[in-house]
Write a structure and sequence with these properties.
heterodimer, A: alpha+beta, five-stranded mixed beta sheet, 27% helix, 32% strand, B: alpha+beta, Aldehyde Oxidoreductase, domain 3, four-stranded mixed beta sheet, four-stranded antiparallel beta sheet, 3 helices, 10 strands, elongated
């Protein structure tokens, strides 16, 4: 099976939960954002409990949790924004 | 003129106001968001803003592009801080210059409301005894 490299970035409370701000992980071809979060949640279960409120961006564009990833995508995972 | 930027340094509000308007326009409208001392009954010592800088710039650019295409703005300035922001300092500065005020009010409200919804910036309040991400507050 083809393996993709996905570059994960985390911000704010998601970074606190995960304990890193960026990491590269390997996922099988065809994996979705949800698959990436599930994989990260194995080490950081709290992340999985927040999946319904989290926001995701692939290559700096907002995407839904069921969006498919492609090799070398940058996937950012973060909580609702609170600027202003 | 369009100015869109993220910066760590304090915002020079007075300097920006001086260059916000034009002689063709009848109104300069500004919104300045500031770090307040009290939040939900707790005394805030300072704020810290985390940012996904490249994406935040893209989102800010989209917001300003939409605003200048929708309303006849001569000038549009949007500046957001990140990093530490002390109490009383400006965290965000928005100014629009326009012939008539109604269009300016509409543009200003659109810009700040959309920043709060889409730009990847996160505010953390620091107190004497800890800190809380605002997006995680119950």
């Amino acid at each position: 099976m083809y393996i993709m490299n996905i570059h994960i970035k985390t911000f704010a409370s998601v970074r606190d939960i995960c304990g890193f701000d960026n990491i590269t992980m390997e996922l099988p071809d065809g994996a979705s954002v949800k698959d990436a979060v599930s994989c990260l949640s194995e080490k950081n279960p709290e992340l999985g409990t927040k999946i319904d409120i989290l926001l995701f961006a692939i290559n700096e564009e907002y995407r839904a949790v069921d969006a498919r990833l492609q090799d070398n995508d940058v996937l950012a995972i973060f909580p609702p924004v609170s600027g202003g | 003129m369009k100015i869109v930027q993220m910066q760590k340094e304090p915002i020079d509000v007075t300097g920006l106001l001086h260059k916000s308007g034009t002689v063709e326009d009848g109104a300069i409208l500004t919104f300045i968001g500031t770090a307040r001392k009290n939040s939900m009954g707790r005394e805030v010592h300072y704020l810290h803003y985390d940012v996904y800088e490249d994406m935040a710039m893209r989102e800010l650019d989209k917001i300003v592009k939409h605003a200048v295409e929708t309303w006849p703005l001569t000038n549009c300035i949007v500046i957001h801080r990140y990093g530490r922001v002390n109490i009383g300092e400006a965290s965000v500065f928005i100014a629009v210059s326009v012939k008539h005020r109604e269009e300016g009010f509409a543009a200003l409200r659109y810009i700040i409301d959309t920043i709060k919804k889409t730009v990847p910036i996160w505010k953390k309040e620091h107190y004497a005894d800890g800190s809380v991400w605002v997006s995680e507050r119950p």
